[in-house]
Amino acid sequence: MIAFAIRRIFQSIIVLLVVGLVAFAMFNFVGDPVDSMLGQERTDADVERVRTQLGLDKPFPVQYYRFLEGAIQGNFGISYRQGRPVSEMIAERLPATLELAFVSAFLAIIFGVTLGIFTAIYKKGWAANIIMTLSLIGVSLPTFLIGILLIYLFAVELSWLPSFGRGEVVDLGWWRTGFLTKSGLLAIILPAITLGLYQMTLIMRLVRSEMLEVLRQDYIRFARARGLKDRSIYFRHALKNTLVPVITVTGMQLGSIIAFAIITETVFQWPGVGLLFINSIRFVDIPVMAAYLMLISLMFVTINFIVDMLYFAIDPRVRLEKRGDEK
Amino acid sequence: MFTKIIENFQRARNSDFLYSFTKSPVAIISFFISLALILGAIFAPFIAPHDPFNPATLNLMNGFSAPMQPNEFTGEIFWLGTDDQGRDVFSTILFGMRISLFVGFAAVAFAMVLGVTLGLIAGYVGGWIDAAIMRIADVQLTFPGILVAMLIFGIVKGFTPIEQRDEMAIWVLIIAIGLSEWVQFARVVRGATLVEKNKEYVQAARLNGRSSTGIMLSHILPNVLGPVLVIATISLALAIIAEATLSFLGVGAPPTQPSLGTLIRIGQGFLFSGEWWIILFPALTLLMLALSVNLLGDWLRDVLNPKLR
Amino acid sequence: MSENILDVIDLSVEIPTRHNILKPVDGLNFNIKRGEILGVVGESGAGKSMAGNAIIGLLERPAHIADGEIWLNKKRIDNLPAESMRKIRGKEIGMIFQDPLTSLNPLLPIGEQLTETIIEHLKISKKEALDRAITLLEEVRIPAATQRINAYPHQFSGGMRQRVVIALALAAEPSLVIADEPTTALDVSVQAQIISVLKKICKERGTAIMLITHDMGVIAESADRVAVMYSGQIVEIGKTYNIIKKPRHPYTVGLMGSIPALKGDNERLVQIPGSMPRLNNIPPGCSFHPRCEKAFEPCYNKRPLLSKIGDSKVACWLYDEGYKNG
């Protein structure tokens, strides 16, 4: 187990180093950072000073090393557009994105798994058919259209929920949360549904197809032949076997939630890191883009790592094989 | 090689390809909707009642006309209404679809050429080149395609001179979306190449001192035709949605060359003031386009390659 | 005469398809007594497994019982509602499947799978169920049962797993066990052990066993009586010794001829020409007639019924008094 974990951590670090290289290359080769920082009126001395300040006079490996060193300490340089440290800009917006992603993931998993099991068990029923048809449309619907549709229904027509922003937030010092005020809670409903819907559909379809596959297995027929109750067959025997592949994909989906938050945040003007990123692309603000890339890679790698460990906990076959490996 | 392709098509025809098409209402409807939309986009200049990009034909007085109702100042009737500048929504949709479909098709073509080439190289050459290509593919697959596309869009945009950024936007989009979708093609082609590589005729050709590359190509390409077609169709749906999403986010097609996504972005501004038609019709068109291509891809996959699921 | 555990009367199973109705099981008649092993042999597709599934109520839609009756311990069970049938499965009828590698849930320890089945049917405490599970494992001769009760299926060999499967089938002491090709997926050396476990249980507990197999060797080794099936029907049924030594139906004769003898003259193995008809293309009359060397006039359009010939029952016009001499 420990050897397996260490191996995975090692692999994760390599992925991060590669992504870091990409981010660093962006810094160095996309546009001219000196140009971006100094603007039109400048002297040669200014250029030289900034070059030294940014370390651009050093050889490539040294520059990469210093970039990584900075990145580990959370130092990603200064935004070309706003002139503020990127780390500060990200830190103040990260809570908004994480809260949104958390609520969406929660909704997506709870409803995705439940509906997936339901449609697998009652695969011929009318309700399951309706859900499956809707989900097909759901997969084809671009996220931003879902968001606009929800805004139109619940904000414009019914005026029940706010259509943009985070509502009032409470500052806890290191974290600004929207969970503690009524307007904050109301404001998160539409964005969370928008962001979670697509993932929910995917999880649902996956759980359904895995469940149907498992229900065809011999051990399910054998369980029936032993006269076990349907409830036990579905939730004890089938669900556990369904979960193994589902966890892998769901883990990946959680990563995508953070990426897709970019779209939702734009639709709802949600003040998170996604909105920051999309603006950085629009204005080619390279330090922000690079920092976002590093941040999201770190999250992906962490999630993948957790998924691997969960996989380990659920499936005794993996567990014992790995233990065998270590001997 | 061409006879093999023709054979393959004949096999497909003799098998239940056409039969299952005529038996699947979903496939028929999707096919005709896709066809109608594509034809509409191609012949937009002839079908569109107005040219939305010719300022001479625009009349600001026509702004905000509701669908099917005579404008209060000019009395003109627009099927799907007009936007704030008096542009006919129906016409902008036709022209917007042109951009959307052009970007979609071009991006998929780019992804296909890139993916098939890299897949062949990886499978055939093997060794560290194979490892490198597949590693990149793996890392890329860890991230959602749309994020990869956004990032590439940002980077490529950084390379384009500032004054040309709007002009070049469409091409940057094509590169970004194309680069985000090559992996699936490469995987399938690599797999097929690995299978063929070990077959006896290739070994025999090699022993005879003949170039095995040509023979392999002529065997591999017909074999991967089915899966590549399926992936291409599904990628097209993805590319159309990706383009619309990027343009909606304001990092895609510029307002001077609006795609469906750009039109929806513009329309969102009028959602609260009651001019629902400016956003509804482009959104519906995008939906029909994405859905019909998607369903067509699903059906193709079931018919040609049940294993690909 | 000892009592009948199972009585099957005119059982037919039908599968409606778009074009026609298939009859994988067509008018089956047999019974199994207490402590008896009835072997059911035939080629794959003869309807053996389908008959087994029909008896335990596990036919998968659209297959269904179209005709006939099934009586278990003097109680009719073919028309019971789903919930009552579920209570009979495991409790009164146990089933053993072909492949022990796939019959056990890979994510649950075998002890849990056993106790869950026991508690479902016997309403005893968890502790008692665990004791019972260990006894069962010992009974099917799994060494160190107490230690291995919490092991997962993949930690056992194929033969051991099949023993676990047998223990599971016996968990609630059913009076009938349907064993569907219980040895087919196993090594030859393990097959004999599994057969001996089955025989032991049959004798010690008086369990009736319906042993479905295509392997005449297994039948010869274990069955008291044999039913030979061909395209959904029983063509011959009788004592094992009689069927093997004095086969009467031409199909049985062919089947026996295809078993290689271990000693004695090395005659060429007899092969039955042709293959069993597909379900959608069963010939009229005796369904074996296209492959039968002795086919004559009535075989082409009249279906023979099982009738008593000597100690066995045979469905063949060759033995019909009306035709025998004519």
Walk me through the structure.
The complex is a heterotrimer of chains A (327), B (309) and C (326). By secondary structure, chain A is mainly alpha-helical. Chain A has two domains: 1-81 and 283-327, no CATH class; 86-272, Orthogonal Bundle (MetI-like fold), CATH 1.10.3720.10. Chain A contains 13 helices and two strands. Chain A has helices spanning 2-29, 33-38, 44-54, 60-72, 86-121, 126-140, 143-157, 182-215, 218-225, 230-268, 273-282, 286-314, 316-326, and strands at residues 170-171, 176-177. In chain A, strands 1-2 form a two-stranded antiparallel sheet. In chain A, β1 and β2 (176-177) form a beta hairpin. In chain A, α7 crosses α8 (182-215). The radius of gyration of chain A is 24 Å and the shape is globular. Chain A starts with a helix and ends with a helix. Mean pLDDT of chain A is 81; it is low at 322-327. Chain B has 309 residues and is mainly α. Chain B has a domain at 99-309: MetI-like (MetI-like fold, Orthogonal Bundle). Helix content of chain B is 72%, strand content 0%. In chain B, α1 (2-14) crosses α11, α5 packs across α12 (260-268) and α5 (89-125) packs parallel to α13 (277-304). The longest helix of chain B has 37 residues, at 89-125. In chain C, β9 and β10 form a beta hairpin. In chain C, the strands form two sheets. Chain C has an eight-stranded mixed β-sheet with strand order 6-7-8-3-9-10-12-11, sandwiched between helices. A four-stranded antiparallel β-sheet of chain C has the order 2-1-4-5. Chain C is globular and about 65 Å long. In chain C, α4 (110-122) crosses α5 (126-139) and α7 runs parallel beside α8. Chain C has a single domain (4-92, 172-261, 270-324), classed as 3-Layer(aba) Sandwich (Rossmann fold), CATH 3.40.50.300. Chain C has twelve helices and twelve strands. Chains in contact: A-B, A-C.
